[in-house]
Amino acid sequence: MVADFDVIDFLHVLTDHSVQLLDVSAAGLLLADPRGELRVVAASVEAARLLELFQLQNDQGPCLDCFRGGQPVIVADLNAETRRWPRFTDGAQQAGFAAVQALSMRLREQVIGALNLFRATPGAFDPANVRVGQALADVATISLLHERSRRHSDTLNEQLQAALNSRIIIEQAKGKLAERLGIDATEAFSILRSCARNRNRRLADLAQAFIDGTEPLSGQTPTGSRQPAAAQAQAPARTQPGA
Question: What are the pLDDT digits (tens) for 112-156?
Fold first, then answer.
């Protein structure tokens, strides 16, 4: 944790590491904005991000219950919960997920979000993995709250709002890059994130520059291999007024 750390990248590291360390297929993260409304701020894959959005739009699902109650919600088989969350269970099935564990991002009485872990197959979650997942959520929670106290009392609200605003810009850039290179949204985000790290730029700043057309992005895979030059996502030429 350093001064002016990149919140979006920090939270994506959390979702990526959750998938790598635990027996899950995908991870998503919801944080509350200054008004207490949940927003999707990170996801390991596009399918998880869309399912998180689906939960918010339909106001039902285990991740919302976890945030509102401040307690973990663990479901080994979503097919058994069709009465509890009819729209969510249908959406999860279409997204390819059959089980979920939602872990609260909570310190004492303050709940700032939820870390949500999805699995493609039904079955009980390993209790040891559940503890590790909660530990990851706790570390992230403490890190964000510590950063607030290190600066001033309203830093967290400002930081979370900035993260939410940045996420909008990043989604726009991701969609533009995906369309330009003919790839899916998950791969587009990986390229955007890789370019930001290689250029030592903040994700949101690079995304905004790409949207504005002031900085091109090459069609470079996260591993560093390059695609053909024709597949490069060059910034469109700017036309002069009256042209």
Answer: 899 999 999 999 999 999 999 999 999 888 877 776 666 555 556
SS3 for 196? helix
CA distances in angstroms from 237 to 160, 212, 213, 214, listed in the order given:
34, 11, 7, 9
pTM higher than 0.70, yes or no?
no
Nearest Cα residue to 175 out of 21, 38, 50: 50
Percentage of residues of the chain with pLDDT beyond 90:
54
Domains of the chain: 7-151 (3.30.450.40), 160-227 (1.10.10.10)
Strand partners, 104: 114
**DSSP per residue, 188-219:** HHHHHHHHHHHTT--HHHHHHHHHHTSS-B--
- CA–CA gap between residue 31 and residue 115 (Å, rounded): 9
